[in-house]
C-alpha cells in the first residue's frame, strides 16, 4: 500500500503516498548533493573525491529515475519503458565510454611514442 | 483495469479514463525523444572528459580559474527545488486540485528555472571575461556546448511551461492538456537528472 503511484482505490491514500515519494526523493537528492559538494571541498585525496562524487551522482540519478520520473525497476509498469531506458543506457555506455577510452588511449600512446622515438634514435 | 504505470512520470491513473490511456502512447513516444536527447548529452559528456587534460586545455584558462563552486551550488539548489516543485503540477492534476494549484506550481517551476538561468548566464559572462571563451581550447568548446545545451533546454522548458499555463487558462484541465503536462513533467525532471551529471562531472570532478 505504501508503494508510490499504484493508484489505490482511496485517492487521498494514494496522494499521501505520492507526496511522500517526492519528499523522500527530495531529501535523498539533497543529502547526496551536499555530500558531493562537501567531498569536493574537503581535504581528502583527489582519487577519493572523484570516487565519492561519482557514487553520489549515480545514486542521485537512480533516485531521480525512481522518485521523480516514476520509472519502476521491479516491473510494475509496462516493460517497454524500462527496456527503452536500459537499451539506451547500454548504447550510450558503448559510445561515450568508447570515445573516452579511445581518446585517453590515443593521448597515452602519442605521449609514450614521442619518448619511444627518442629511444629508437639513440639505439640506431 | 490493473493499476500499473503505463508510462514514465506520475501516471494520471484510470480515474482519468481516456486521458490516462491516451497518455500511454504519447508519453512513451516523448520518452523515446528524451532518450535520444540523452545520447546527445552523453556524447558531449564523453567529449568533455576526453578534453579534460593539459593538451585539451591548450594553454587556455582551466577549471580552477573559471569555475565558481558557490555559484554552481546555487544553480543546483534552484534546479533541484524546481524539479521537485513539478510534483505539485503532477499531483495537482492527478487529484484534481483545480487549475489554480496547477498554474501556481507551474509558475514556481518557471521562476526557479529562471533563477537557475540567471546564475548560469552570469557565470558564462564572467568566464568569457576571464578569457574562457569557446574558441580558446577544445576543453572550453566542449564545456560551452554541454552546459550551454543544457541551459537552452531549461530555457525551452520555461517557454513550454508558459505555453501550458496559457493552455490551462484557455481550455482548462482537459484530456489534451493533462497528457501534455505529463510530457512536460518527463522533460523537466530529465533536465534535473542531466544537471546531476553536469555539476558532478563537469564542475566537481575537475576541481577535485
For the secondary structure, the number of strands of chain B is 0
Strand coverage percent of chain B: under 5%
> Mean of residue pLDDT of chain B?
92
Shape of chain B: elongated
The interface involving the most residues is between: A-B, 54 and 54 residues
Oligomeric state: heterodimer
How many distinct beta strands of chain A? 0
Order of helices and strands of chain A: HHH
Percent of residues in β-strands of chain A:
under 5%
Give the name of the CATH architecture of the domain at 70-207 in chain B: Up-down Bundle
Q: Label the overall shape of chain A.
A: flat
Low-confidence stretches of chain B: none
Please describe the biggest sheet of chain A, giving its number of strands, its sense, and whether it closes into a barrel: none
Helical residue percent band of chain A: over 70%
Low-confidence segments of chain A, given as residue ranges, are 114-124
Helix-strand blueprint:
The complex is a heterodimer of chains A (about 120) and B (about 210).
Chain A lengths: L10 H31 L4 H23 L10 H45 L1
Chain B lengths: L17 H34 L2 H4 L5 H4 L2 H26 L4 H31 L8 H34 L3 H33 L1
Task: Give your account of this protein's structure.
The complex is a heterodimer of chains A (124) and B (208). By secondary structure, chain A is mainly α. Chain A has two domains: 1-76; 78-124. In chain A, 80% of the residues lie in helices and 0% in strands. Chain A has helices at residues 11-41, 46-68, 79-123. In chain A, helix 1 packs antiparallel against helix 2 (46-68). Residues 114-124 of chain A have low confidence and may be disordered. Chain B has a domain at 70-207: Cytochrome c oxidase, subunit III, four-helix bundle (Four Helix Bundle (Hemerythrin (Met), subunit A)). Chain B is an all-alpha fold and 208 residues long. Chain B is elongated. Chain B has helices at residues 18-51, 54-57, 63-66, 69-94, 99-129, 138-171, 175-207. At the A-B interface, helix 1, helix 2 and helix 3 of A face helix 1, helix 4 and helix 7 of B.
Amino acid at each position: 500500500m505504501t508503494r508510490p503511484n499504484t493508484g489505490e482505490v482511496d485517492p487521498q491514500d494514494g496522494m499521501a503516498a505520492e507526496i511522500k515519494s517526492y519528499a523522500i526523493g527530495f531529501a535523498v537528492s539533497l543529502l547526496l548533493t551536499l555530500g558531493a559538494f562537501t567531498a569536493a571541498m574537503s581535504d581528502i585525496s583527489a582519487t577519493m573525491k572523484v570516487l565519492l562524487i561519482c557514487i553520489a551522482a549515480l545514486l542521485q540519478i537512480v533516485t531521480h529515475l525512481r522518485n521523480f520520473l516514476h520509472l519502476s525497476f521491479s516491473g510494475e509498469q509496462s516493460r517497454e519503458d524500462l527496456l527503452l531506458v536500459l537499451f539506451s543506457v547500454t548504447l550510450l555506455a558503448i559510445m561515450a565510454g568508447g570515445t573516452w577510452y579511445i581518446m585517453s588511449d590515443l593521448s597515452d600512446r602519442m605521449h609514450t611514442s614521442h619518448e619511444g622515438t627518442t629511444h629508437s634514435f639513440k639505439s640506431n | 483495469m490493473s493499476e500499473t504505470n503505463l508510462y514514465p512520470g506520475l501516471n494520471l491513473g484510470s480515474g482519468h479514463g481516456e486521458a490516462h490511456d491516451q497518455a500511454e502512447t504519447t508519453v512513451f513516444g516523448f520518452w523515446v525523444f528524451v532518450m535520444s536527447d540523452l545520447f546527445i548529452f552523453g556524447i558531449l559528456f564523453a567529449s568533455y572528459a576526453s578534453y579534460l587534460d593539459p593538451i585539451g586545455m591548450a594553454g587556455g584558462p582551466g577549471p580552477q580559474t573559471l569555475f565558481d563552486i558557490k555559484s554552481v551550488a546555487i544553480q543546483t539548489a534552484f534546479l533541484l527545488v524546481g524539479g521537485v516543485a513539478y510534483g505539485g503540477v503532477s499531483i495537482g492534476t492527478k487529484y484534481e486540485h483545480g487549475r489554480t494549484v496547477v498554474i501556481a506550481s507551474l509558475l514556481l517551476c518557471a521562476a526557479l528555472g529562471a533563477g537557475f538561468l540567471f546564475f548560469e548566464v552570469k557565470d558564462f559572462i564572467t568566464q568569457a571575461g576571464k578569457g574562457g571563451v569557446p574558441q580558446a581550447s577544445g576543453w572550453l568548446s566542449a564545456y560551452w556546448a554541454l552546459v550551454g545545451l543544457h541551459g537552452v533546454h531549461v530555457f525551452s522548458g520555461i517557454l513550454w511551461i508558459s505555453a501550458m499555463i496559457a493552455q490551462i487558462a484557455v481550455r482548462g484541465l482537459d484530456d489534451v492538456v493533462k497528457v501534455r503536462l505529463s510530457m512536460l513533467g518527463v522533460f523537466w525532471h530529465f533536465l534535473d537528472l542531466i544537471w546531476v551529471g553536469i555539476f558532478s562531472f563537469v564542475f566537481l570532478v575537475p576541481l577535485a
